[in-house]
Specification:
One of its GO terms (molecular function) is menaquinone-dependent protoporphyrinogen oxidase activity. The protein is α/β, with parallel strands linked by helices. It contains six helices and eight strands. The strands form two sheets. Strands 1, 2, 3, 4, 5 and 6 form a six-stranded mixed sheet that branches. It has a two-stranded antiparallel ribbon with strand order 7-8. Helix 2 runs parallel beside helix 4. It starts with a strand and ends with a helix. The protein has one domain: Rossmann fold (3-Layer(aba) Sandwich).
Length: 170
């Protein structure tokens, strides 16, 4: 059976998009092909059997575009193999399950439970001060967020490898 798979992401400054692209590349090396698109370019998900959704975190919450997409498509996502990842500045010593709980509002948690994803991950992100608006710089300064690239590519690669193993189960 020919399965169609999708990676869709919500990324304002490109860090989450780069994670999505790395995941796609790693899955392709394992023989698993995913289409990839920015969340606003995904018009139809009914054709996809496997979906990876990645959202940047802004002020500690998922990108509003991702929240809107997940709410709108929850019925179609239910019953598919779905993985979620978040990317954003996080405390270095946080456990992934603590990060997932911390960065989701109660309304989206209920929808995530309904969708019943195969797995969720929250990866430390990247803040490039040069890419931020004046308001974003003010927020980063106000919350004393660490500036720099904290993405853990080994952790991301391990997560992608686990997805490839799940997809190869017949």
């Amino acid at each position: 059976m020919d399965r169609k798979a999708l990676i869709a992401y919500a990324s304002k400054h490109g860090s989450t998009r780069e994670i999505a692209e790395r995941i796609r590349s790693l899955l392709k090396e394992k023989g698993v092909i995913f289409n990839i698109a920015s969340i606003e370019n995904v018009k139809k998900i009914s054709d996809y059997s496997d979906v990876i959704l990645g959202s940047a975190l802004y002020i500690g919450r998922w990108d509003k575009r991702m929240v809107k997409f997940v709410k709108k498509n929850q019925e179609q996502l239910h019953g598919k193999r779905v993985w979620f990842f978040s990317s954003g500045p996080t405390e270095i010593n946080e456990l992934p399950e603590d990060m997932n709980a911390k960065h989701m509002s109660s309304s989206i948690k209920e929808i995530i439970n309904f969708i019943s994803p195969v797995d969720m991950a929250c990866f430390p992100g990247c803040i490039d001060i040069e890419k931020l608006s004046i308001f974003e710089k003010w927020i980063v300064n106000k919350v004393d967020a660490p500036i720099g690239d904290y993405r853990d590519w080994t952790c991301i690669e391990t997560w992608a490898d686990n997805i490839s193993k799940e997809l190869n189960i017949k």
